[in-house]
Specification:
282 residues, alpha+beta, 4-stranded mixed β-sheet, 12 helices, globular
Length: 282
């Protein structure tokens, strides 16, 4: 990996950096992961077998979308239903944030505009492992991604205010491995308070971290690493600091209920899954 790690000597130094950004006028995307060793894979890619034939991977994804639209529509409001119409939504890409919001596996990876929210998610679990806050410059990312659309075979549509239609290649067996930002069109409370959005990849099975690094430096994934300062990187969150970080974040009113995150519910669900799987409780 070519993401440059930044380490701190104290919790206060780490918090100070995230509370007072070096470039406050530059929009930055952040993602917190409790285990720094894991790649930035989508929830769907973490579930599908790595050796599965690509057409089968696409078929599994389509089956999930179809089943969600069939079963969830009775629980969704009219705004949500607009994106879930038909056996397969007309715009599958824009429907994916709704599936992601309700916990279905998708090809999306979550990000936030709030650094302390990312720090919360990097610290909330896996207290025996170092976590990380991944970040990248959104302006630089979007500029380079936009410059590449022609090379990817994606065209702009006047009816979409000049946007590209990501569906044009995303569900093809031979589509290019682009990556882009994706914002939810539905005003979910959780996404609003977390100021969340997503990255979406043009192909399944790819590490979003590697795809983002390639946007900033096309040579990065081939081993010829060029230092790209102030555009992307990772902040290391030591395992031993996690509880102290959570305590300090709580004093700043950053906690599961404030972020509309299923805290104790998630613990209960995990215990249920362990019991169903036959694992011993610790």
């Amino acid at each position: 990996m070519c993401w440059q790690d930044k380490k701190f000597t104290t919790v206060d130094d780490l918090l100070q950096l995230l509370m007072i950004p070096t470039k406050p006028d530059v929009p930055v995307a952040y993602r917190g992961q409790p285990d720094i060793s894991l790649p930035l894979l989508s929830s769907l890619d973490r579930l599908l077998a790595r050796d599965m034939r690509y057409e089968y991977r696409l078929a599994e994804e389509t089956a999930i979308i179809v089943k969600f639209c069939q079963l969830a529509k009775e629980f969704c409001d009219d705004t949500e239903k607009e994106y879930l119409q038909g056996p397969i939504p007309q715009d599958r890409i824009k429907a994916l944030p709704i599936l992601q919001h309700y916990g279905a596996p998708t090809r999306l990876v979550d990000w936030t505009c709030l650094p302390l929210v990312a720090l919360y998610f990097a610290s909330i679990c896996e207290h025996d492992k170092d976590g990380a806050v991944w970040w990248f410059d959104q302006n630089a990312f979007q500029h380079e991604v936009g410059r590449r659309w022609d090379n990817y075979g994606l065209k702009t549509y006047p009816a979409l205010n000049g946007e590209v239609n990501l569906n044009d290649t995303a569900f093809n067996t031979d589509g290019p491995k682009w990556i882009a930002e994706l914002h939810c069109r539905v005003s979910f409370h959780r996404i609003k308070v977390q100021q969340g959005f997503f990255t979406v990849a043009g192909r399944l099975g790819f590490d979003h971290g590697e795809l983002i690094a390639d946007v900033f430096d096309p040579r990065a994934t081939s081993g010829q690493i060029r230092q790209t300062e102030n555009q992307y990187g990772r902040i290391v969150v030591p395992a031993l600091w996690k509880q102290k970080i959570l305590d300090q974040l709580r004093n700043m009113n950053i906690h599961s209920k404030r972020l509309d995150y299923p805290g104790a519910d998630k613990v209960g669900q995990n215990l249920t899954r362990e019991l169903e799987s036959g694992f011993p409780r610790k």
